[in-house]
Design goal:
Number of strands: 18
InterPro entries: Acyl_CoA_acyltransferase, ATP-grasp, ATP_grasp_subdomain_1, Bact_Acetyltransf, Dala_Dala_lig_C, GNAT_dom
CATH architecture of the largest domain: 3-Layer(aba) Sandwich
CATH topology of the largest domain: Aminopeptidase
Number of helices: 9
Structural class: alpha+beta
Oligomer: single chain
GO molecular function: acyltransferase activity, transferring groups other than amino-acyl groups; ATP binding; D-alanine-D-alanine ligase activity; metal ion binding
Low-confidence stretches: 185-190
Keywords: Acyltransferase, Ligase, Transferase
Radius of gyration: 22 Å
Largest sheet: 7 strands, mixed
Pfam families: Acetyltransf_1 (PF00583), Dala_Dala_lig_C (PF07478)
Length: 337
């Protein structure tokens, strides 16, 4: 088509569409990225090297795949050999990468080497990718958007650094974040987010003791909410150990979900864990087609109030003497519509 105004250029487009180029660019510029091996055969030595350097499960990618297509996870050697053989029939090179499940990816939009927008893209429910393609069609996870100033500086920095190796047009850079570092697309999180398991009841109770002096959830209450189908009990884990949790309660009669409790151990405060948990709870609330979220926060807890305000919650009221020690609660709310 002629007469259209564009802000990209052919060279940049080709670079963005070539995962082999991107891998070499990130390696050359020391941008943290997933452990990656580029392969071209299915010989024994190749398979041995992948098992030693990457391990299972691992992800195989064609260089020009997009929207979760041309990306396959394999669990063992037989799957690796057969999938690699099949993919090499359509591509001379395949990228083999380490696999880690994460609840969402950052997408940082960059124009002329400056951040333009930011989004969190969530994995499709029950799946490890944002898009799930099968015989019934395609399902996609939801997303949330925000201004670039709401994004942790470390996330913006790594996105800007990654974009410099491509050009000065409009790009979307995928980034994953943990407590200590940010990494360009699909790197393992030191902190992983997901549902709490019944077997983690004792660990959550220990976390309660570390975080709260008053109004703790008892082990009995924790077990109840872990089994409650109207509750979403989400954990942040470091090395499999809970370092934070968020508890969302819903009811068919409620227009909004209620964040009943949010806790992060001292070591991980101020490092994005609380924000990650809130984002995950909001994701589930939107999936349930709720109109928003509400919560109570201690009047003397300024840090928590600041976190909620940054994440879009507004003060709407106060409950005097709400907590067991007589402290008042501030009522905060975030509306989606």
């Amino acid at each position: 088509m002629e007469g259209l105004v564009v802000i990209d250029d052919p060279t940049s487009i080709l670079r963005c569409c070539n995962k082999v180029y991107l891998h070499e660019n990130f390696r050359r510029n020391r941008i943290s990225a997933p452990k990656t091996v580029i392969v071209s055969t299915t010989c024994r030595r190749t398979l041995d090297d992948l098992e030693e350097q990457v391990g299972y499960p691992l992800v195989l990618k064609i260089p020009n795949g997009s929207f979760s297509r041309g990306v396959v996870r394999v669990e063992n050697r037989s799957q690796l050999k057969e999938t690699l053989r099949r993919m090499l029939m359509g591509s001379a090179l395949i990228l083999a990468q380490e696999y880690f499940y994460t609840a969402y990816d950052w997408r940082i939009g960059i124009l002329n080497n400056r951040p333009l927008y930011a989004s969190r893209y969530y994995m499709s429910e029950g799946h490890w990718q944002i898009y799930q393609h099968d015989a019934l069609g395609t399902k996609a996870g939801s997303f949330t958007t925000m201004a670039s100033y709401e994004v942790p500086r470390s996330v913006l920095n790594v996105a800007l650094k990654a974009a410099k190796g491509i050009g000065d047009g409009l790009y979307g850079i995928d980034v994953k974040q943990d407590g200590n570092r940010t990494t360009r697309a699909e790197r393992a999180l030191m902190v992983e987010y997901g549902f709490a398991l019944p077997s983690e009841c004792e660990a959550i109770a220990d976390l309660e003791k570390k975080v709260f002096l008053h109004d703790r959830l008892s082990p009995r209450q924790i077990r109840y909410h872990l089994k409650n189908d109207k509750a979403r009990f989400c954990l942040a884990r470091e090395g499999g150990i809970p370092v934070g949790y968020g508890l969302l309660l819903t009811n068919r009669r409620w227009a909004r979900g209620r964040i009943y409790s949010l806790a992060v151990v001292q070591k991980w405060r101020g490092r994005g864990v609380g924000r990650g948990l809130l984002s995950l709870l909001e994701h589930y609330a939107r999936q349930a087609e709720l109109h928003g979220l509400s919560l109570e926060v201690r009047r003397d807890n300024g840090d928590a109030q600041a976190l909620y305000a940054i994440c879009g919650f507004a003060l709407v009221g106060e409950k005097p003497g709400y907590y067991s020690d007589g402290e008042s609660a501030l009522l905060m709310r975030k509306d989606f519509i």
